[in-house]
Amino acid sequence: MKNEFDLAPFYRSSIGFDRVFNLLNASQRLQAIDTWPPYDIAKSGDDDYRITMAVAGFGEGDLDITQERNVLIVKGEKNQDKQGEYLHRGIAGRSFERRFELADHVRVDKASLVNGLLTVELKREIPETMKPRKIAIGSAGASQAPLQVIEGEKQVA
């Protein structure tokens, strides 16, 4: 059974939220969720996030991290060694591509690979023009220009 939400009422009464609605629609279309490689997403501060992926067997040269607009793409591709015949192969070494949707103004700060764990540090940096600012209140008489009457009767003194 498939539950899909109709977002049409929101489109009719909202302006500028197209990206949010597209994300919601895309999440409904996901069929099978690939669970490999496993990963964690943690919030390490007010504007700091961390993605940790278990990529055992992959080296720095096997991994590629790219940020395109609001999408973080982590790819892993490992050359398969054909050394001997395996009786059991339990260490996953298959290629993968994992995509993470990022909010506006989130950028990759740094990435590291230690003990088979790939850690990607993310930081949200809000531009100065979008930060709250204090508006000074001035006196009304000092800067108020005389009013002009465009339509109607002008008052005679």
From TrEMBL:
CDD domains in UniProt: ACD_IbpA-B_like
Entries under PROSITE patterns matching the protein: SHSP
UniProt family annotation: Belongs to the small heat shock protein (HSP20) family.
SUPFAM superfamilies found in the cross-reference section: HSP20-like chaperones
Assigned keywords, A-Z: Stress response
Gene3D superfamilies in UniProt: 2.60.40.790
Protein name as catalogued: Molecular chaperone Hsp20
